[in-house]
Structures are given as structure tokens and as C-alpha cells.
Amino acid sequence: MSSTTIILLLSMLLGIQPVATDLYLPALPAIKTEFGAALSQVQLTLSALLLAFGTSQLVWGPLSDRFGRRPILMWGLATFTLAGLGCVMASSMHALIVWRALQGAAMGAVVMCARAIVRDLYTPETGAGVMSKALTGLGFLACASAPLGGLLTDLWSWHAALGLVMAFGAVALVLVIVCFKETVHRKNPHALHVKVLARTWWDILRHPTFVAFTCVSVGTYGGLFTFLASSSFVFIDLLGLARWQYGLLLFSMAFTYLSGTVLCRRLLIRFGVTRTVAIAGAGSLLGGGWMALNAWLGWQSVLGLTGPYYLFVLAHGVHQPCGQSSAVGPFPQAAGAASALGGFLMMVAAFATGLWLGVAKDGSALPMTQSIAFWAAVTALSAWLLVLRRGGPRV
Known about the structure:
Helix content is about 85%, strand content about 0%. It is mainly α and about 400 residues long.
């Protein structure tokens, strides 16, 4: 595969996650109204997707080490597309939650394989740069997703937004069938043995590089998930934005994230991986803390909440390429298992955050801003105390 083909495929495979979430975020209030559901039930459509997404990776990772990335990708994308059809045709909130959970489980295979493919083909040092290029492509998809979701919901209904999610899965499946060549040249025949798998997971979990960079990834993703799970209700229901305006707001966030992935590549060239992550940690802490302070002082306006969060999202665009590629770097023979374990831990944090947001809702923006500030602190402390001190090689 040419480098262009690899970047295109990785962008599509990694981009399936923001497509599956951002496209339907503007539709959440419409889903709540149509089914007459409680807010906690509506948020469960996102939390269940992400919990299944994280948990399933623990199965997909070892399977991909044993049988290769290509068959797992095809199964995952085919199931994602079929589950997407179920979401479009769902006639109750319970059915929608079940189909979204199945879609999340299938999405786990796709994103896990994408992260593992980077380690299959590149060294950890080179992989961070390649991952940042792929996540730039993801950023373009995220930029388009929210405005399209809002537009489709306004013109037709939330069914149309989820229909486009299904179509994306089908296109990605065709691309994998036509373009993707297997990247695992020496499959591990023992990858599924219980004792081998337990020892592999234990070795991964106690490796300082995995711990350091995974903590950064978990922290920055926790802040992003908080915004995804609660922002539609804050900005549409509380602050009165129209769905298309909220879609444009998400577009601006996605564009900022895209800019962060470009900034990441420039920082990597000049400072290396560890110092790049430490610099971005300052941006995370400043953005999250400033946002929480504005809300606490009563400045709960669109500008007061989004202004600081742009800084957090810019840093997120730096943390994710470095965190995801570097955490898997020490495990060339178990890239699938390491990728799966990192993805699982991120989604556990996201699911716990979703549960807390459902309990803490008080009709204000405070639960959202407090949670983002918490995850910003986790990100910064992980970058400074773990990555900068002993988290990995200086490039």
C-alpha cells in the first residue's frame, strides 16, 4: 500500500468514531422529544455505544493478533453497517439503545485495528507523525459531521442523520475490501490462549510507557466525551441555540482539533514526543480550568464556555496522536492487545463520566464544566508527572 492509501484508510477507520457520535449529537433533543424519554435514557444511547466500543476491543485485539487485521476489519464494518440500519428503523428508545450498543461493539474492531496498523507498519517515533496525519483526516470528517447531522435533522429527522452513519460504514467496508492489504505478516498462534493473554495484558498494564501515555489519552478523551455527552443540552436547551447553530459550533471545535493535529507534527519535529505532550498539558489545564471558572462565576454564555474550551480541544489534537501511538509502541508483537487495552480504559472513563453527568444534572452548565476541569487536571498531571519524567524515549 502507498503512504497515501494508508493515510486515507486510517483516516476513514479512525474517523468512524466521530461520525458515529457527532452526526447524531444535534439530533439528541429531537430523539428525546419523539420518544418522550428521560434525559438519562437519551444519553445512554451514547454511553452504551462507547461502553460496548471499549469492552469489545478486549476481544477484537487478541483476535486481530491471531488472525490478522483484515478479517477483523471486514467483520467489524459489516456489523457496524447492519447495526446502523437497525438504528434508522428503531421504533423505541430501548431498541435504539440496543442497536447503538451493537454498533459500538463493531466500531471497536475498526478503531482498534487502525491503531494497531500504525504499529505494524511504523516505529513508535515515526508512528506519532503518521497518526497525526490520519487524525487530521479524522478532523475533516468531524468538521463535516455535526453540521450535516443538524441539517439532516432539521430537513427530515434524526433517522436521516443515523442513515448517513450507516452509509459511512458501508463506504469504509468497500474501501477495506478493495484497498487494504494485511499488515500482520507473522500472526501469533498463541494470542488467544488464556495464560498467554493474561500474561500479555499484565506486561502491558505494568509497562511505564503504556501507563503514562494511556493516562494522557484517558484524560484528554474524558474531557472531550464530557462535551459530546452534555453540550447539546447546554447550548440548545439552556442557551437557546438552533440545531444548525449548534452544528456549526461543533464544526468549529472539530476544526480546532484538526489544527491541533497539524500543530502536533510541528511540535514533534522541534521538541520530540515527551516535551510535546508536556507543552500540550498546559493548554489542557488552562482551557479546562478557565471554562470551569467562567461557569462558577455565572458567565454561562456561548462565548464564556466555548472560548476556553477551544484551547482544550487544540491540546486534544496534540495529545491523541502522541498518546495512542506511543502507548502501543513497546509492543510490536502484541499491538492489537495493547491497542485494545488502551481503548478499553478510555471508554470505561467515558462511561463513568456519562453516568456521573446523568446524576449531576442541575439545569446549569456546571456539571459539564466541572467534569472537563477534572479531566484537564488528569491530563496535565499525567503529562508532567508520568510522560515527561519517565513515559518514553525523547525523539
